[in-house]
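User: I'll paste a sequence; please echo it back and then give the predicted structure.

Assistant: Echoing your sequence first, then the prediction.
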Amino acid sequence: MKINRICTVFFSPTGGTKRAACALAEQLAALLGIAAEYFSLTLPEDRQKTLCFGEQDLVIAASPVYAGRLPNKLAPEYARILHGSHTPVVPLCVFGNRSPGDAPREWLLLLENGGFVPVAAASIVSRHAFSDEIGAGRPDKEDLAALCDFARSIAETLAQPEVKPLDYDRETPLAPYYTPLKTDGTPAKFLKAKPVLLESCTRCGLCAEQCPMGSIDRETLLVSGVCIKCQSCVRVCPSHALRFEDPDFLSHVAMLREHYTARAENTFLL
């Protein structure tokens, strides 16, 4: 299979998905001796476009996993923006050390429906957006080494005269979104929770500039639209002036810290 270009597409509010995707792209670019191009879908203005790819493009499509699925506000955007024409694709699902759930299959199905041909896929662990203690430091050196090995396997696959699409379950209905739990095991209901602005705010406006949903008012710096709990605003703030105080959200984070700090494994499909 002739590949002339590596195209890396990612949605990455807190950077973990971008890091994993770019690490894979850089290794593949070196192995194949071609350039890698990068397309962010993280900000609203990034998604005001359509991306069309051909048979000699290799697309790395990377998304975070939210509650065991693709982010529900982004999946329709992915489908609208990404268009292939028998284009080989490597879907990456990046999850926060709990579980990738059914997001890998959802990503494969969405991309196939958009004209892409999956030749490999992976689920990669990253630090959880909610807490540095969950998936701490991931992707780390071990993860990056595994991505190097994965890149070599993909390059070997692409060197074959005929590359067959991945074999995976296309028939079973997708699992529902994971229900977040509190420390007592009951459902954590924080769908309407929004970050609280503290007095330490210097009004630099970075939170509004970096909100993936464009939901933070640039004048008041209050969340006036949909909040997907991505934590971009919390992590980008140099004054640490944003935080979530919703009791159910905090209980869910405590539950994750209690049960999901042990090292989770990456998975690779070839």
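The chain has seven helices and eleven strands. The domain at 5-174+262-269 is CATH 3.40.50.360 (Rossmann fold).
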